[in-house]
């Protein structure tokens, strides 16, 4: 009887410990991006990449901190800064301490200011902002703060690399710049003018205009102006439905010059442009898919395609976000102490599966990484986008782009 009681006590204790482990709170990451409206396909594909990265890179490998899983909690912000702040507060009220957002620098500016204000007022309830795609340079310059980390290259870094390639083309004499009318579009235009002026003073900017974001149904009037300008090349930071609309309109209107872009692949864009964009649309990006960066990246991409047949790994940086966050949490020894996690992220060197080392610059929380310029094509493609047979083939690489670029950030640390 005594022996039975002892075993029973141990069994009961084991059940309690097991139940506690089974119901341990996941490390939750709020994904706040568009899941409805004109940019829903971009947001949804990004969400799938986050969900897959968490499962594939963390949960299936045993989790963090000895067995705790990560979890992505999705919030639809409808690409609205106002709606994003509402969803941010909902996420914080749910106890979520990590916020991921990327589509629209206008939204990112609103979130980073709100997070900074919240953390000043709530020192025991702080959160971190993991910016995976919003590239307004101000976010890691004048508007920088300790709680914001950017995992994409900013608009200036991308334009610096892109114009290196453009400047090598002696036949390019006239360039037309067009973009969306908000902070990011303006940053792209300013960077293009600056870099071309420094690298090719002989190049004439024959057009520089902005259009309403997500509201233009017919880009024909813009395309006609571009063709009338006799531009040899077009630069655009357009993304989502606006990239599809502009790209299609330019090509269908008879423009036959190169179109240099930031976000012209995946999420339906590649399929929409198809054969007509072959050898004409060029893209600046991070993470090489064709050729693939490593055997691990190949296995990851194949596993993603198996789970999401209609999706694409068109934002490899998302996997860097999850990998680096997991490494930072392990280094901090806690997912709840976001100050300790942030200090682990600062200055972190991380081996990306997509090829090469990445480095989180401590002075402004801007990730430094290799940049790739590729061309829209169906030749020598291992991984296509949108099941279209077309993908982006890397033509040139800029290693650790803008490692020593200046920043006006004056970081205030807790």
Explain the overall architecture:
The protein has 414 residues and is an alpha/beta fold. It folds into 2 domains: 22-154 and 294-368, Response regulator (Rossmann fold, 3-Layer(aba) Sandwich); 156-292 and 371-398, Response regulator (Rossmann fold, 3-Layer(aba) Sandwich), CATH 3.40.50.2300. Helix content is 39%, strand content 19%. The chain contains 12 helices and 15 strands. The protein has helices spanning 2-22, 40-58, 81-93, 105-121, 155-167, 183-199, 220-228, 241-252, 269-273, 295-307, 317-332, 338-345; strands at residues 27-33, 70-76, 98-101, 128-131, 148-150, 174-180, 204-211, 233-236, 259-261, 281-285, 349-351, 357-361, 366-368, 371-377, 391-398. The strands form 3 sheets. It has a 7-stranded mixed β-sheet with strand order 7-6-8-9-10-14-15, sandwiched between helices. Strands 2-1-3-4-5 form a 5-stranded parallel β-sheet, sandwiched between helices. Helix 3 runs parallel beside helix 4 (105-121) and helix 11 (317-332) packs across helix 12.
Query: Which architecture of the largest domain per CATH?
Result: 3-Layer(aba) Sandwich
Characterize the main sheet.
7 strands, mixed
Strand order of the largest sheet: 7-6-8-9-10-14-15
Write the CATH homologous superfamily of the largest domain: Response regulator
The proportion of strand residues reads 15-25%
Low-confidence segments, given as residue ranges, are 1-23
Write down the secondary-structure element order. Answer: HEHEHEHEEHEHEHEHEHEHHHEEEEE
CATH class of the largest domain: Alpha Beta
Summed over residues and divided by their number, the pLDDT gives a mean of 92
Structural category: alpha/beta
Shape: globular
Rounded to an integer in angstroms, the radius of gyration calculated over CA atoms is 23 Å
């Amino acid at each position: 009887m005594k022996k039975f009681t002892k075993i029973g006590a141990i069994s009961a204790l084991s059940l309690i410990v097991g139940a506690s482990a089974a119901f341990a709170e996941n490390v939750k990451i709020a994904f706040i991006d568009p899941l409805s409206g004109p940019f829903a396909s971009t947001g949804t594909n990004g969400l799938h990449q986050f969900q897959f990265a968490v499962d594939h890179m963390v949960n299936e490998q045993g989790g963090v901190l000895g067995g705790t899983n990560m979890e992505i909690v999705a919030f639809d912000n409808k690409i609205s800064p106002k709606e994003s702040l509402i969803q941010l507060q909902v996420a914080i009220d749910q106890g979520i301490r990590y916020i991921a957002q990327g589509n629209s620098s206008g939204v990112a500016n609103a979130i980073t200011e709100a997070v900074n204000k919240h953390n000043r007022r709530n020192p025991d309830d702080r959160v971190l902002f993991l910016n995976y795609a919003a590239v307004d340079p101000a976010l890691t310059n004048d508007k920088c703060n300790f709680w914001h980390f950017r995992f994409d290259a900013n608009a200036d870094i991308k334009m610096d690399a892109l114009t290196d390639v453009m400047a090598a083309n002696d036949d390019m004499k006239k360039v037309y710049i067009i973009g969306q009318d908000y902070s990011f579009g303006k940053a792209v235009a300013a960077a293009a003018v600056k870099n071309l002026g420094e690298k090719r003073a002989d190049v004439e900017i024959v057009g520089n205009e902005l259009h309403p974001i997500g509201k233009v149904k017919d880009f024909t009037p813009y395309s006609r102006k571009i063709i009338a300008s006799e531009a040899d090349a077009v630069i655009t930071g357009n993304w989502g439905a606006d990239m599809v609309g502009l790209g299609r309109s330019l090509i269908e209107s008879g423009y036959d010059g190169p179109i240099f872009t930031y976000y012209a692949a995946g999420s339906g864009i590649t399929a929409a442009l198809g054969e007509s964009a072959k050898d004409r649309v060029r893209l600046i990006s991070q993470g090489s898919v064709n050729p693939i960066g490593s055997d691990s990246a190949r296995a990851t991409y194949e596993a993603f395609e198996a789970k999401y047949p209609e999706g694409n790994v068109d934002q490899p940086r998302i996997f860097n976000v999850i990998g680096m966050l997991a490494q930072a949490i392990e280094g901090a020894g806690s997912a709840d102490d976001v100050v300790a996690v942030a200090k682990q992220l600062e200055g972190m060197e991380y081996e990306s599966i997509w090829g090469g080392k990445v480095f989180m610059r401590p002075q402004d929380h801007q990730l430094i990484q290799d940049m790739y310029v590729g061309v829209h094509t169906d030749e020598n493609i291992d991984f296509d986008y949108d099941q279209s047979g077309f993908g982006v083939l890397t033509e040139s690489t800029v290693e650790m782009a803008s490692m020593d670029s200046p920043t006006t950030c004056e970081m205030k640390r807790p």
